[in-house]
Fold these 4 entries.
Entry 1:
Amino acid sequence: MKIGFIGAGNIGGTAAKLFVDAGHEVVISNSRGPETLADVENETRAKAVAVEEAAVFGDVIFVSIPLGKYKSLSPSDLDGKIVIDSNNYYPGRDGEIAEVDSGLATSSELLAKHLSGSKVVKAFNTIWFEHLRSEGDKSKPIGERRVIFVSGDDADAKSVVSGLIEEIGFAPYDLGTLGASGIQQPDSVIYNKSINIEEARKILAENSDGASA
Ligand SMILES: NC(=O)c1ccc[n+]([C@@H]2O[C@H](COP(=O)([O-])OP(=O)(O)OC[C@H]3O[C@@H](n4cnc5c(N)ncnc54)[C@H](OP(=O)(O)O)[C@@H]3O)[C@@H](O)[C@H]2O)c1
C-alpha cells in the first residue's frame, strides 16, 4: 500500500518506519521541506518529499502534526483518500478550539469537516510513540496484543486502517464514529494504556455505554 505521511516527528517517524518494515511504500513530509528530514529518512528508509507530494502519493495519508495546524492541509490534495488522524488536542499548544471545548464536535470531526472529501479515521493518537515503537508484537495472537483504538464514519476506511494496525503487531479496537472519538483524547480512561482487547472492553464497559472491538 502507498502511505504518505504529513508530519514526520515522534509519532509520524515511528509509524513510518513500522510501515516500511511491514513492506509498504512510504513517503514522509513536514512543513519545512524534505531537505530537513535527512535523519528521519535514514532512520525510516522512507523517502522525504514535499507535503503536496505525500498527499498525492498515498492511498492512505497519515496526518501527525500539531492539531492547531490542521487547516494547512489541502482538502483537494486529500480528496478521496483515507486519512489517519493521530492528532491530539492540547489547548496550550494548539490554541483553544471552542467547538471541541464545548463538546459540540470532536477534533477529528473538525478535521473531517475541513477534509470533506476524505475518509478520516482517528487512530494512533492514544499511544506514546516509544510504546508504538516497542510494543507491537506480530507473534502474539490478536487477543494478547496491545490495542490501538480506531474511530471513523467510513467502515471500509476503518477496515483498511485496522489491517495496517494488525500488520505492525497491534490489535485494532473499533470505538465507533468520529462523533464518539472524544474518548480517545488525552487523559481519558483508555489514553496511553498498555491494554489488550479484553482489558479495553472492561474499562469501556465500566466507563461508557457500548463501544465494541
Ligand atoms: N508524541 C507522542 O507520543 C504522541 C502520541 C499520540 C499522539 N500524538 C499527537 O500526534 C501529533 C504529532 O505528535 P508528535 O509528537 O509526533 O509531534 P512532533 O514530534 O512535534 O512532530 C510533528 C511533525 O509535524 C510536522 N508539522 C508541523 N506542522 C506541520 C504542517 N502544518 N504541515 C506538515 N507538517 C507539519 C513537524 O515538522 P515541521 O515543524 O518541520 O513542519 C513534525 O515533523 C500531535 O498532534 C500529537 O499531539 C503524539
Entry 2:
Amino acid sequence: MNKITICALLSLFVLTTGWGQNGTETLKEYTRQMDKLGKAKVIQSAFAYIDELEPRTTKDLIFLTEIPAPPFGETKRANAFRDMLVEAGADRVWIDAEGNVLALRKGTSGDKTIALDAHIDTVFPIETDVKVKFRGDTLVAPGIGDDTRGMVMVLTVLRALNKAGVQTRDNLLFVGSVGEEGLGDLRGVKHLFSDQSGVKIDSWISIDGGSIGRVNHGALGSKRYRAHFKGKGGHSWGAFGLANPHHALGKAVEYFVQSASDYVAKGGAKTSFNIGRIGGGTSVNSIPFESWFEVDMRSLDPHRLYEIDSIFRKSVEQAVADYNSSGVKDKVSLDLEKIGDRPSGLLSTELPLIQRSMAATQYFNEKPRLTTGSTNGNIPISKGIPAVTLGRGGKGGGAHSLDEWWLNKDGAKAIKLTLLVCVAEAGLAK
Ligand SMILES: [Zn+2]
C-alpha cells in the first residue's frame, strides 16, 4: 500500500503538470522489444487472421449485444460467452463461483498467468431493447461499446492466437467478468483477486471504453453509501413535534457538504463528493417514517478517499445527534449502508506492462494516452499487481445511454494492439 501511495503522489504530480499525458517517455528497450515482436512471423500471421476474422467479429458483437446482461443478471450472456470460448479453443473453460467466465490457454512454462478481461454486464435493466440498429455503418444499441466490444476483442485475440499457433511462455487467462458496473461494484474482479478464486493472476489487462491509445494505469477509487434515517412517522398536525427523518436528513446534508467543501478547498489531489439521490416520505401531510440519500465520493489518492469517507460518516452522525437533542419528541435513527467501495491507486509508468502498452500503441503509429479511471483494474492496482485498461478501438460514444453507438473504423488495429500487449507480457516462447 505504501509503495502505491508514493507512486500515486509522484505520478499525480506528473499528471497534473500535463506531461504525463503527452510527454511520458516510452523507454527504448520496450520500443525495440515491441518492434521485434510485432515483426515476428507468427505475430504477423495472427494479425492477418484478425483482419480475416473481421466479419465474424462484427457478427459476434451483434449476437452478444442482443443478449441482455443487467447487473446481477449476466448468466445468459455468460453462458453464451463460455460456449464461444470453448469453440474458439482453450485448455480449460469454466464459470467460477461469482459467475465470471474463464478460459485458460496454457503457456510453455506456466509460471505466471496474464489475464485479458472485458466485463459482461451492462448498466441497462433487463427490459431494455438491446436490438442492434444500423445507421449506415454505425451500430447502435445499449452496451455495444461498453463493454460488449471488449468481450468480442477477448474472443478474437484467442481465436487469432490459436489460428496462428502463437505459443506463449506464461499462461493466458481470458476473462468475461461480472459486476463491473454500478452496484455490481467490481464483484467479479474482487472475487478473482480474493483467496477463494482458485486462480493466481500476475498481470491484468482489461479492455473497457475509449478509442485506441488508452493506457489506463490509475484507479479512481470511490466510496458510496445509502444513508437511511428512520423515525415513527405520523400526522403532520396531530403528531407535530415528533422527530422527522427528512428534517434530520437536511441537517446531515448541510453538515456534510459544509465539511467536505472545506476539506477539498484546502487543495491536494482532486477529491469529489456528490449526493445523487434523495427519497422517502408518503404524503405532504405526513411526518415520514423514512428518509434516505445516496452519496458518491471519489479520489485518486487512497488517503484522501479515506479522509473524505470519515468526514462523511462523522458529519452525518453528528447531524443526527444534534437533531435528536434539539427538543424533538422521540428520535431519528441512522443506518449507513455501504453500496460501493472501489479502491484507488496509481501504477508507475515505468512498470513493464505500462511500458509495453505504450510501446505497442506507438508500434501502430498511435499516441498513447495515460489515463486514470474506475475500471476492473482498480482491484489489481490497489494490490500492487500490474494492471492496465486498454481502449476498445473504433469510434464510439453514448456509453451508458440508450443511444450508444460504435463504428468499426480501424477496429482491427485495437485487437492487434491488445494481442501484442498480451504476448509481450506473457513472453513469446522460442
Ligand atoms: Zn465498462
Entry 3:
Amino acid sequence: MNTRKLEGKWALVTGSSRGIGQQIAMGLAQYGCNVILHGRTMAHTEKTRQMLAGFDVRIHAVAGDLGTEDGIQSVITEVQHFPGYADILYNNAAIQSEWKPIFEFSMEDWLKSFQVNLFAMICFCNAFVPGMAERGYGRVINLTSGIADQPNLSPYSVTKAAVDKYSRDLAFAVKENNVLVNYLDPGWLRTDLGGPNAWEAVETVLPGALVPALLDDNGPTGRLYAAQDYKVLGQGIT
Ligand SMILES: NC(=O)c1ccc[n+]([C@@H]2O[C@H](COP(=O)([O-])OP(=O)(O)OC[C@H]3O[C@@H](n4cnc5c(N)ncnc54)[C@H](OP(=O)(O)O)[C@@H]3O)[C@@H](O)[C@H]2O)c1
C-alpha cells in the first residue's frame, strides 16, 4: 500500500470532536493528511486538535449544529473559506434516536434523525463532491451501521439504510470521475453513542476506517466496508 497517497490532501471529518470521528482524524493525520475537524461548537474540537498536535499535518476546525440549516451552511461556508475544498469527506456525525416502541416516535423524532444523519450528509456531498469530480479525485466515506432488528431505535436505523442507498446512488453519479463513494460500518464500539456495553473499543475502528480513503484511483465504489474486518488485535492509534 502506498502510505504517502494522502499526504497534503484535505479531509473533512464531521463529528471528529470525539468517538469514531476522532479516531478517523488521528488515522488520517498519521498518513500525512491535513484534517478539517468538526463539532457542534469550536470548543468541542479542541481536544482532538490537541491530540493531533504531534502530527506533521495542517489542522483546521469548523463548527455547526447539523440539526439546523444554518449550522450545516456555516460548516460549508467555513470550509469554502479555508481550505476551499475537501479531497476526502467522512460524513461521520450522527445522533441516535431515543429508545422507545416504534409506534411512539413522533414526526419530530423522525425528522430530527433524518436531518442530522442524512440531510446534512447530502448537503455536504452537494457542496464538496462536484469539486472533487472536477479535479478528478475524491473519496467520500459515509458512516452507516450494522444495526438490525432494533425497532426501538427505528429512526436511527432507517436513516442508516437511507445512507447506504444514497451512497450507492452518489457513487454511480461520479464513478467516471475517480470519486469513490463508499459506506463504512464501524462495528459496535464503546463511544457516547455506542454506549459502555458495546463489543469493541473505539480504537478498533482503525485501521479499517481508513481503507476506503486509501483506495487506489478508480477503485471500488458504492460498496460497504466493515472496519472490524481489518481489526488488528491490540492495535489502535493512541
Ligand atoms: N459507536 C457505535 O457503536 C456505532 C455503530 C455503528 C455506527 N456508528 C456510527 O458512527 C458515527 C460516529 O458515532 P460515534 O459512536 O463516534 O458517536 P459519538 O461518540 O456520539 O460522537 C458523535 C459525533 O457527532 C457529532 N454530532 C452529534 N450531533 C451533532 C449535531 N447535531 N451537529 C453536529 N455534530 C454532531 C458530535 O459532536 P459534538 O461533540 O460537538 O457533540 C460528535 O463529534 C455515527 O455516524 C454513528 O451512527 C457508531
Entry 4:
Amino acid sequence: MYKPFGRILYGGDYNPNQWPKEVWEQDMEYFKDARINSATINVFSWAKIQPSEEEYYFDELDEIVDMLSKENYDIVMATSTGAMPSWMYRKYPEVGRVDYQGRRHKFGQRHNACPNSPVFQKYAKAIAEQLAKRYGSNPHVTCWHISNEYGGECYCENCEKAFRVWLKKKYGTIDAVNKAWNLEFWGHTVYDWDEIVAPNALGDGMENGTDTAFAGLSIDYRRFMSDSMLENFKMERDAVRPYVKDTPITTNLMGTYKFLDYFKWSKEMDIVSWDNYPSYNTPWSFTAMSHDLMRGLKDAPFMLMEQTPSQQNWQPYNSLKKPGQMRAQSLQTVAHGADTVQFFQLRRSIGGCEKFHGAVIGHVGHNNTRVFREVKQLGEELERLGTSILGAVNEAEVGIIFDWDNYWALEYTSGPTEDLTYVNQIHQYYKYFYDKNIGVNMIPFDADFSKYKIVVAPVLYMVKEGMKEALTEYVQNGGILITTFMSGLVDQSDNVYLGGYPGPLKELAGIWVEEIDALAPEQINTITFTDGTSTTCNLLCDLMHLEGAECLARYASNFYVDMPAITRNQYGKGYTYYFGTNMNKDGIAKVLEMAVQAANVAPVISEATGLEVTCRKAENCTYYFIFNFKDQVLPLPSCFDNCTDLLTGQIVTAGKMMKQYDTVLISMPN
Ligand SMILES: [Zn+2]
C-alpha cells in the first residue's frame, strides 16, 4: 500500500505573505483549533522570491517555513511557476503565449507561459532548484508541488518549431505525416517540415476553436501541447529531485480537464493530486466519477489538493455549501481514495478576482463562523479516524475506459451531431453503477482488462493500435464488453477504418452498422425490447445489421423501424453488448442490469438503498462510507446496525434515519 504521509493531511493553500505578522500568529492559533496540520505555500510567489533576473529573496519564505515547521505542519511546497513575474515579460516578450487567434499575450493572468520558451524554461528550472536546495532537507516539507493547474495552449513560433521536431520524432518522414493526416484531402500535401503550421484559427483550425479541417493534425497538436507542458513538469521535478530524496512530487490536476493527457502525466508523478470544484448542480455521481478517474490514473490513493470550504467565486452561481455539505463532500473524496483533505484556501484574500472565494478564515478575520466550525468538526473527526485508512484501496469489478486521445478525436469530429460530448457520455454509464453502489475503476485504453468482470467503453470512437487484440482476448476469455454507437470508427490518426462500422469491433460485436442517423434535440425515437417494454432514445441512431449478434431491442419508428438498436454477441466465453443509440436512463439501466447479472458483479452491500455506499479496504479492515446526497430522509441499511460510527464514536442504532448530507463511517474486519 502506498502511504506517502504519516497522517491524513488536513489544511490547504496558505498565503501569509499577503498578511502582516500579527495575523500569522493568530492564524496558527485558529488552525490548531481546527486540527489543521498541513499548508500549501509559495504557489504564486515567484515575483516575491525573484524580484529580478539576478536576485533571489527568501527571507519571508524562510520565516513562513520556520513558523510552520515549529508548529509541526506537513508543508506542501510549491515551486511558484504557475504565474510569471512581470520583469520576465518586459525583458523577454516571447515567454507570453500566442493564442488560438494568433495574438501574442502581454503580462497578465496565470498559466501563461509558453511551454516551449527557452527563457521560461531556464528561469522556471532555476527557481525550482533554488527552492529545493534551500528547503529540500527540511523534514517538515513532505510534498513538492510543481507549478499549479497546468493547462491551456500556445501557438507561437517556438511552439510551431518544437511541434515540427516532435513530428519528426513520431513520423520520421514527411510522407508519413501526409499519410497520417490524409493531407491529399483539399490538396494540403506538405513537402517540407517547415511547411507544417500550428492548427489555430490562422491555420487549419476552424474559427470557433472546437472544430478543425484536419483532425489528425489537431489531435497531434493536442498530444504535442500536453507533452510540452509535461516536459515543463519533468524539468522542474528533475531540478528538485536531487535535493528532496524520495519526498513525493506532484502537480495539481483538474479531473476531466480536456487539454492534458493525465494518464500519460501520472506516469511521471509520484502521487496524483487534484482540485475538486463541483458547481451547485454537479451530480454527486459526477464528482465520484472524477475522484475515481484521479485515483485510476495511478490506480492508487491520491491527494485532494484543493476544494473550497464554502463557496467558489468563478462559477456563474456560487452557492454556499449547506450545513454538512462540505463535510460530506470531503469524506466522499476520502471514500474514493483521497489520503488528504486540503482547501483553497486557509485565509480569504482581500483583493484580486478570488477575493470572494471561500476560505477557512473569512474577511471578518475571526473564527466565530459557521464555516470555521464545520472545518473544525471535520478536523476533529479526521484526527479521530487516525492513520489506518492511509493507503487503503478501492476495489472494483467494473472498469470504464477513459482516454484523452479519444476525448479529443470524438469532439473534433465534424458530424454526425454537435451535441455529443465525451465526458457526459462516460458519466451516463458510470452513473448506473454509482446508483447501484457498484465500485468502478476508471481505466486507460491499455489497462489489463482481465482484472474486470465488465469493461465499459462508451463512444470508443478511436481504437488505437493493440486495442482490438486486447479487447478480443478479454471477451474471448469470458469478459463482458459494453460499447456503444460512435465506436470503432477511426484509428489513432483519425482515419476511418474501412470495411464497415464499427471497424475493428465489428466481429466482436457481431454487427455491421451501415448508416448513422442524427436526431435534433426536439426529435426522439423509441426502442422496444424483446420482452415488450419500451424506452426512448435520442442523439444518434445506428442503422445496423446482425452478423451473429442477437437483437435485444428494435427501433419502434422512423424509416428504420424494426431494425436492431441494442445487441448482444457471444464471442468465445464472453459477450459484447452494443448500444446502437443513446437510450434514456432507464434503458441504459435495463441493459447494464443484464450485464451485471450475467457477470455476477456484486454491489458494495447487498441491500438496495438510495444512499451512496463506497468502501476502501485497508490491511485489516474495510471502511464503509455511507452518504445521503438525496434531498429526502433515508434509512441506514440494516447491515450497519449496532456498528460504531468512526466519525462520531457513537454506536449506530437500528433503524437510524439519515438526513441530506449525513455521513456515517463504519469499519468491518476483513
Ligand atoms: Zn509557445
